[in-house]
Structure formats: structure tokens, C-alpha cells
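G.,

No rush on this.
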Amino acid sequence: MPTQEALSEIILSTFHGRSTLPQHDLRPQPAGVLCPDITFFQSQDTPVRLAALATPILIHLPAPTFFIDIDGVLYGGSAPVAEGPSVIEFLRQQGSGFLLVTNTTRMSQQEIQQKLTGLGYRVQDDEIYPVSLAAVDYINTRYGAARCFMIGDASLETLFAERGHTVVRTEEPVAAVIMGLTLWPHFGEIDIARRLVNAGAEPIALHADPTWPDEGVTRIGLGSMVAALEVVISRPITLIGKPQPHFFTAALERAGFVRENTIMIGDSLNSDIAGATAVGLKSLLVRTGNSAAEPLPTSCDWELPSIAELPGWYQTQFGS
């Protein structure tokens, strides 16, 4: 008969994906759950039943953790999504950790936190992981303190300078060319970027999203600028943000989350849903942003009209 320690390991291994367990059994139990007799599956068609133990075991299963996109999920333009702030509080009450992950390049971590606070959300700086910070992490790892030619808004330049990098806007030797979204790009900057890349600089774009939602208006995204540079250079551009696998991996490491226990909530079928699926995360699509009218892909695990519906969904999936 297995010991309590051995059975606990089997159950937690099953929860974290090393065996297959029916979805409805993956319910976090903050107070613990008595499990005198347990069935789990080593494969889809081979049930393995553990003998009932003489002494019931108190099993603590972890609450799910979440990556949550921001623009189009928590707010649209200058207005919060209905019930959004209360949903964040609900997750705190359930003991579910979360990290807000975003491809927004035009606001710093602190500016995003300030905007969310102004919209009624209670979040801390370290609960936000913007692509700009991921880009700094990438440069730090690859180059240390570096000289960078930058296309982007002032907040991006400030972030890089604060983290010890030298930002230039003219044609001079650099380690990397950094591209972030700016509302008024011009071909002069892209031409300088082309020459610097041809001279050996690494071309880096924070993401390649083709569009982004802005208070009901779909605007052209950074992807158009990336494409303009890509057609005139002979090497691939390094992409940092969603849906790139290393962005999700970096976010998991930063938050300390377990991959098999983490769910991505987003509004973009490509950046959020496909990106999460590619690295083994579960995904939940909300219809309040970029993909409001697009068909649901088979790779997406769940769909909700809005994040406002998340508490009811959570209780159905995991209990309360």
C-alpha cells in the first residue's frame, strides 16, 4: 500500500500534467480534501485505481495561476472592462496568483500601473510584465550594458537608460536596433536602422502585432514597421513579446509559476491564444478586444464573452 507521501506525489504529478486527469477533478481545495480512495489515469484508456487507505490523506492542490493580457481584456481605451477590478480581487481571494502580460510598448511598467489604478484596479508594479521590460531583460542577458539605436516613444528610451543602456537616435555604431511602437514613425529612422543592421547591429522588435484596439478603433500596430525594415535587410528580426515562446518562459520565471498550472487569458488569437498553446499553457479567450468576431480555434481551451464572467467559470472549473 502506498505511503501518504507517495500518494501525494502521484496526485500532484497528475495535477501538473505528468499523467492525465479529467478536467473536472482539477479543483483547488484551499482547506484540503480528504482522499481515502482515488482514481487517476496513466493514459486515456488505462485506469489505475489506488486501494483505499486506512487513514484518509489531507491533500492540498494548488490554485491555478494566470497570465492576463491588459488592453482589450482589462480595459478598452480609457474605460475599464465591466467588473474587471472585482475579478482581480476575486482571484486574490481564491489564492490564484496572476501576472499581467502585455505587448504595450508606449507605457512603462509604472505608467501601466498608474493607469490601472485610475481605472479602479488594485495591482502592484511587480504584477505587471510589459514587453518593454522583457526587451531590457533580453539585452541585459545578451549584451550587458549596450549602445542601442531606438525607434519608439520616450517611455521606452527612459526605461533603457534607467537600466544602464546608452540610447542613440543618430547613425553611430550600436549593438542593437530596438523598435517599439510610435504613432509618428518615419522612413528616415527605418533607413538608419537598415544601415546599422547591415553594419552588424542586431535588429530587435518588441513585437509584430499588426493592429491594436483603441476605444473601438483598430489602429495599425508595430508589425507594419517591422515589415518595412524586414524587406530591406538580409537577416531575421528578433521578436521579444507575445506570441514568442521566450516571452512566456521569461514570464513564468519572473512570476515563479508552474507551466502546467498556468492559464493565459487574452483577446488576441495569435499573440495570446496561439502563443500560450505553443509553450504548453492552457488558454482562455475573451471577446472584448482584438478577436471579438473571429471563430474560436480548436487549440483554445475556453471562451468567455468578457473577463466579467470569469468568477462563474472559475467556480465551475475549479470550485470555490
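When you get to it, here's the other one too:
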Amino acid sequence: MERWSEFYKRKIKISSRKKMKIISKLFITICIIILNACSANISETNSFTISGSDTMFDLTSNLAAEYMKEHPGISINVIGGGTASGIRDLIKGQTDICTASRNLKPDEAKALADYYNSLGMVFLIAKDGLSIYLHPENNVKNLSMSQLKNIFNGKINNWKVLGGKDTVIIPVIRNPNSGTYLYFKEHVLEDEEYSSNCLIEPTTKEIAKFVSEHRNAIGYGGMGYSLNVFNAVVNGVEPLEKNIQNDTYPISRYLHFFTTKNPKGLIKNFIDWALSPAGQIVVRQSGYIPLWENKL
């Protein structure tokens, strides 16, 4: 009996050792998995995506490029496509920051609330005067808000009516996915429909290019794209920086960053930097108006 008792004791001791070895191996394996997961998270925080406004595409690309230059190892992917597209990406969790040239619509705000139990966060990044693009050789230089409305809704279709040459007006607009399209529709057309004669271009850059090549065309877009066109005087007010800053230019607006929640970590750091004097210098260099002029 004593032999069998001794045998069972040894067997129990051996089994206990095996169990400890198994537990140790499992513990080491779990630690490795956790470390790998942490490494993956660290690498993920070194990159993020910004998508949305076509008006803001060059501005955001310039901000991203300068930020990455100052922060080696950070990767920022900037995508255009329009404000509406960026807001859809934000709601679906497919972008970290949405760029927008307009405010959220009620249905977009509701979708954010449904998905995230929050209306998200809005950051004003820059100010922009919505320029009315004319060909440099067009002798019409000054247009009222009423005249703009009637050009783009189709009630005025010849430059002669406005004191210009006897030629058909070609109004050029963005597609409905664009925040600028909606902003113009609300603030200039007063929610009337665009004329079916309007030519649709996919980007603001293409609108400016078309107008620069066609003397009887008229379009609209951000200040940053108006290098080769004439910026019309609207209601007797030139689209100068001081007039946009004090809102005397009638179609001035803010440009925004949207996030689903209060940003943290890298996203917060980037937004803070964009609003800092260094970021606002990039805003000015991109053709837009900085928010913090007194700090530059």
C-alpha cells in the first residue's frame, strides 16, 4: 500500500508540473498576442483618413503635407468627392475627419445621432468667400445677388441683358453631392432649382478651368481656385479678404472639419495644429482666409 501511495504522490506532482508548464506557455502566448495587438494599435494611430469637400481638397492636402513634414512617420490620406460623400463616410466610420463647406443637414445630423448617440464635433478651420468666376475678358464685372439668382435659375440667359455682349450665358455648377452646390442653392437661389441649362463639372477646379477658357461662361467656387478667372463684384462689394472677414461680401462662409466625437490622440493633435498659427499660415498660402489673423 505504501508503494502505491508513493506512486500516486509522484504522479500528482508530475501532473502538477505539467499543468504549470502548460499554464506558463499559455501565459506567454497571451502576452505575445497582447503585445502584437498593442503594436498593431500603435501603427494604426500613426495614420488616419480625411475625406469630403472638394473645395477644401487642396487646402486639406496642404495642411496634411505640412503636418507630415513636421511629424515624420505620420501618414494622412486625403480624399475628395464632395461634402455629402465625406459625411456619408463619417457616418459609416470610413473616415476619421470629414471636411465640409456647409453645415450638416437635418437628416445627416439624425444619422450621426442614430449611429453614435451624438451630433459629433464641428471645428471651423478657415473662412472662404464664394467667388463668382467670370472670364477675364467678360466686360460684365459687377452682379447683384438677384441677377446671380436669375442667371442660375435660367431667367436670364444672355449677357446683353446685363450690359454685356449679345451671347448666351453658360452657367457652370458643381454636382449635387457638393456642399458648395447646396450652399449656393440655399444662399443665392433661395432654394429655387438650378436651370436645366447649367453645365455640371465634377470639381471646382474644373469649373474654374472651363470659365477661363470660355468667354460667355460663369461659375462659382472657393477663392483658392480662382487664379485664372476674374472674381466678380457682388452687390457692389469686392471679394476682398477684409470684406469676407467682416461679412460685407454677401456670400462668405466658414469651412469645417467634422468628427463623430471629441477627438483624442493624433486626430486631436492634427486639428489643434491646423488651428494653430502654423496651420493658419497654410490656410493663407492655400488661398483662403485664416481665422486667427492676430496670431500670425
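The chain has three domains: 1-43, 45-128+255-295, 131-250. The chain is about 45% helix and 20% strand.

Enjoy the weekend,
O.
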